Hints:
Layout: H1 13-22, E1 26-31, H2 36-43, H3 49-58, E2 60-65, H4 70-76, E3 83-87, E4 93-97, H5 102-134, H6 145-162, H7 179-192, H8 195-209, E5 224-225, E6 233-234, E7 237-238, H9 239-256, H10 259-275, E8 287-288, H11 292-295, H12 299-302, E9 310-311, E10 314-315, H13 316-332, H14 336-353, E11 361-365, E12 368-372, H15 375-392, H16 395-411, H17 439-456, H18 459-472, H19 484-495, E13 497-502, H20 508-519, E14 525-530, H21 536-542, E15 551-556, E16 559-563, H22 566-577
Parallel strand pairs: 1-2, 13-14
Antiparallel strand pairs: 1-3, 3-4, 5-6, 7-8, 8-9, 10-11, 11-12, 13-15, 15-16
Amino acid sequence: MTKTKVSWLPWNKESFRKAIEQDKPILLGISAVWCHWCHVMDETTYSDSEVARLVEELFVPIRVDRDQRPDIDKRYNMGGWPSTAFLTPDGEVLTGGTYIPPQQMMVLLEHVSLTYQKEKGNLKSRITELQQKMLKPQVSPVLGSDVFQSVVDALTLEVASRFDSVYGGFGVAPKFPHSEALRLALLIHHLEGKPAALSIVKKTLTAMESGGIYDTEEGGFFRYSTTRDWSIPHYEKMCEDNAKLLVNYLEAYQVTGEQSFKDTSKGILAYINAKLSDQKNGGFYGSQDADEVYYKLSLKERKNKTPPKIDTTIFVNWNAMMVSAYLLASVVLEESSYQKFALRTVESLLERAFNSNKAMSHYILEGKSHLSGLLADQVYMTKCLIDCYQVSLERKFLDKAEQLAEFMLGNLWDSNGGFHDRLEESGAFGALKLLDKPLEENSVAVDVLLRLYSLTGNQKYFDAAKKTLEFFASNYQRHGLMGAVYGLAVEMHLHSMQIHIVGSRKDGVTSRFLNESLKAYNPLKVVEVLDPEHEKDRLKGLRYPVTDVPTAYVCFGGICKSVEDPEKVAEVIRGEVHGN
């Protein structure tokens, strides 16, 4: 990060104590290592001597990294990065903005300081009132399947109405990929046979892979497009975006068999392997900086240039997303090296970031893990552990997934339904006192709890999942397209599919059943091998007959079909959904 003339303090007790003792407002700068305008603001505004003098004299300056502290970013973001938030000494928002040039900043600093000194009495009573309002409990109704189906219909309409039929994608500019909206559209096509939903996915993915948002030289996607037609990207590359897009292209290839989607999937994987991963120890890096000049060069011209900086921080939630994507790639592309690297990464994450309170930390930097107990890390890690169990059949992954689920239910669960984004902390400052229930992470929590229910039969997982869905049923619409992830969770509740393969793990036919079951498209399926030698109790509970020949049971909507030929199982998985 660029050196600035402002002496930034960390977000901690001492910094807040200083603000309270000196009765000065706080200037909170939220930045990110990959963020172009953050660097610009550091090089201009915060390197200006007069700005620095006013900041030091009138404010207590605190700086946080958006990736390392998503909980702070969530509560104080002012509409993008950088975020510039002016707070009271105990952390309540006064005003703010994003990028602020030097001249404007000087005026703003004096104005905010003066307003704070004049208005602080009124501010305190207004803040207390607001806090009381936010702490009122919200109660969720008990809902039936018909209500949930109407949720899916509403979200499908949202996706269709926001679709840009000229250039693909959603909305105008700036244009983001909206991976979850694409996944929901593909799933709707699969479940309901709607060709329009498939064309939304195909047009968007084709436009993105042939547009400027995809790096044709080194592979991988940039974060978003500044133009409606995908031609001019914003040049940073993020682990999270590439993990989600890898799943989009792999699933689209599963459904359509189109070669270009396979090629783009491989391009993403090649980029991640070469630049955004620790191939020796396992683990995926956070991001690579934007550098417009570098990315406009051909591969030959890039050879002699210093590539944009890579943030080698290992973020647990993004790593877990990428592990799940790599496991899908290993199955769909039939390439075992992706599975090997994914499993090595998971072992490394468990070793370095699973801590004594049985939760995952948020990130690993210079060998140390930091910030334990955020919901995002627990849900995505639980999801990837279930994926690891499905492909490797190693029970330890399922056991760890259950441990993380127990942590979530024991420490982040709200009895009204839904999970808080972080642990309740006595002595938390500012808006961290208020617990948030993020829609994305809660939707993923529903998905993993329903999967765990399928794999264990433990009713409490199902009950918590349903109560979480019910909690968000009345307010998912305010999230617009971002509500698509909730739609995926609702579909998991309505249409999940269980595939039980009964047979010896040593039998080659069992392995073929497993591979074919995993390879067939249906993101709502849970695949499990039940070996009569190891899973006697589970088999007894499910009442499947044990024969000498491995058999797959595909269960959907309360009906199970037995399949004795591995070649036919994919057909049943795909056909079952349309009620064939």
